[in-house]
Amino acid sequence: MSRFRFTVGPWNVNEGLDAFGPAVRPTIALEEKFRKFSEIGISAVQFHDDDAVPNINDLSSDEIIEEARKVRLLLDRYGLEAEFVAPRLWMDPHTADGGFTSNSKEDRDFAMWRAFRSVDIARQLRAKNIVLWLAREGTLCAESKNPVENVKRLIEAVNSILDYDPDIRVLIEPKPNEPIDRSFCPTAGHVMAIAAASKDPDRVGCVLESAHAILAGLDPADEMAFCLSFGKLGSVHLNDQNGLRYDQDKAFGVESIRSAFNQIKVLCDNGYGKNGEYVGLDVKCMRTQKPGEDYQHIINSMRMVEIMEEKVDRFDNEYCRKCVEERNYEKLELYIMELLTH
Ligand code: 3MF
Ligand code: MG
Prior knowledge:
By secondary structure, the protein is an alpha/beta fold. It is built from twelve helices and ten strands.
């Protein structure tokens, strides 16, 4: 049994389409995903605004709230909570040039409208967090935007969300690139700076995704540690990534067991989860997987977390202390290798 409570989003069970080929599995209805999430031991669901309320742009604020209420009832049916709502500011034609940092005032207003509606949805779902994955907040052509002014716009957008609801928390999910070439907020350090500059730093934090840290050339466990040292690790998106390429969202731990161990170790050692934080799994099913077998990557990721927790529990702190005292880190390294391979 894991000490953590797990979350996933509806997008983590998909039809298998990629940039080079169409869907290969049938679409699964939201309710069936909830049923299966609950069955495999997921505690809460993560939402994009339009996962909860499809066609959100065509509805009034009241209609959106009404639709969100129905989703809450559906969650109740399967004993699930909602962890966060994230405005999907990367699909709509209005956000081709970004949302909060688009060069068009009309588009920036649209992005704020979606962010406020996301808060409305979060209230109905009883989700405490708004997540901002700043997918297109950056540049494809570096000279096309003012980089100083746009960081200020990001802070203003966060402040407006904090103003809109006195209880909501804003968690920024940094990613250095893809779909944008250069992000205005590429790492956890950038998120900490934006949080500190916001009007209520206690309500702003980070969602740290393993693959995004790797794409930035950084160590996911150290990025988590950095947020933890400020009390600002609001959530994690555990997954894995084979080097520097497109964002793969592989099952947790399948590429680097040592990195997986260190991520779970830093979470366990610092009491992550004790304040209600969830362990999110932002993992993608392989395109080769057959219909009906498309939850296996989630099951595998949960199992990898559990295996790493067992390793953390077995970790001999006293032996580690002695190696450190002797400054014999080679000896400590062999110990870690034996722990991870036995
Ligand atoms: C992109 C991501 C996204 C975000 C999600 C919630 C597919 O690289 O990781 O997941 O996590 O949109 O913010
Ligand atoms: Mg993610």
